[in-house]
Amino acid sequence: MLGIADTLDGINRAIAAVIRWLALVMVLVQFGIVVGRYVFGVNSIAAQESVLYMHATLFMLAAGYTLLVDKHVRVDVFYAAATERVKRRIDIFGHLFLLLPSMAALLFWSWPSVRNSWAILEGPIAVGGIEAVFLLKSLIPAFCILVMLQSIALLIRLFAEEQHQ
Fold it and tell me: Residue ranges of the Tripartite ATP-independent periplasmic transporters DctQ component domain (predicted)?
């Protein structure tokens, strides 16, 4: 079972290794937009939207990796002072009854919008923008799936640790 967890971890690690470069590209493009606008008086709505697309891609596709490396937001009212065993049980509860159901619900309820967007190849957000809103909306199910896969990998490890205690 730990091999499955390692494979699921590997998926998020591989995606993070690729999309981390979007942060640098996003900063460079934004710098170019500012220089273009204020130095040369040139403006591009598509370039501005590209920053939005890159930010959304970075945020949505890196969420599973963020969960993997335990850098996600945690409300640790009880968690901080808990023993390792209690922390493990809180994590198991959180994954089974909060994270996985909420990701499944988001996936279920967003799918019609994503499907419809692909059916019409939904166009730009603004006139002159990037004609690929359908790709932007596709980040929602990708986000859900990557977070769910990572949650399953973490659950496998948590249950394995519970058995060894």
Answer: 26-160
Question: pLDDT, tens digit, for every residue of 37-69?
Answer: 999 999 999 999 999 999 999 999 999 999 999
Instruction: Count the alpha carbons within 13 Å of 152 in the hemisphere toward its beta carbon.
Output: 18
Number of domain units in the chain? 1
Question: Could you tell me the maximum CA-CA distance found in the chain, to the nearest angstrom?
Answer: 66
Distance CA 22, CA 43 (A): 21
User: What is the domain extent for residue 152?
Assistant: 2-164
pTM of the model: 0.92
Packed helices 2-19 and 21-38: angle between N→C axes, nearest 10 degrees: 20
